[in-house]
Automatic annotation (TrEMBL):
Residues 1-14 have a biased composition (Polar residues). It comes from the Bacteria. Residues 1-91, 148-183 are annotated as: Disordered. This is Scaffolding protein. Residues 40-79 have a biased composition (Basic and acidic residues).
């Protein structure tokens, strides 16, 4: 009869490792640096990625040019107008968010939290202006319903108030003079 011996795999520390257990991830101490050839290869890949990105932008511009060639002036103008309208909408949302953050900075612990709880589109008037009074009103209502968003009250002062300077003690000569004059 032949004998078979099974050995338990061991780790670098000499302890047994369970074969069903996945290997431990490599630690930073065990990782090696790239070395000069690796650095050179990394720089080459970065350069290639930048070149590919530039080429992709050029191809996208060329495709846009071909698409625009077949469009009428009205279609081109309509497309530009819709792109401008979309950009204006994004800028208006950004302005409303900034206004909410500015008004909330006085009362909220994190002013950016206020914009997360409010419907920002409700604060733009029909003429495109931002309604600051409505924002202030809604911020006050938000603090009533969610007081944990408010700034923490400053800690109480344990100062006993204004201090008076200690009176200078009277010396013995002053007491004798005072007794001698009879006051």
């Amino acid at each position: 009869m032949s004998e078979t011996v099974t050995e338990t795999p061991t780790s670098a520390s000499g302890q047994g490792v369970d074969p069903g257990e996945p290997p431990a991830p490599a630690t930073d101490a065990g990782d090696r640096q790239l070395g000069p050839q690796g650095e050179k290869a990394l720089e080459e890949w970065k350069r290639r990625a930048k070149d590919a990105e530039k080429e992709a932008k050029a191809h996208a511009a060329r495709l846009k040019e071909f698409e625009d060639r077949d469009k009428s002036d009205l279609e081109k103008a309509t497309e530009r107008a819709s792109a401008a309208e979309q950009r204006m909408s994004e800028l208006r949302d950004r302005a409303v968010r900034a206004e909410v953050k500015a008004l909330a900075s006085a009362q909220f612990a994190d002013p950016s939290d206020a914009s997360a709880f409010l419907d920002l589109s409700a604060y733009v008037t029909d003429d495109g202006d931002i309604d600051s009074t409505a924002i202030e009103r809604d911020l006050a209502d938000l603090l009533k319903t969610k007081p944990h968003l408010a700034k923490a009250a400053p800690p109480p002062s344990f100062d006993a108030g204004p201090r008076t300077t200690a009176s200078t003690g009277t010396d013995m000569n002053a007491l004798i003079r005072q007794a001698a004059t009879g006051r």
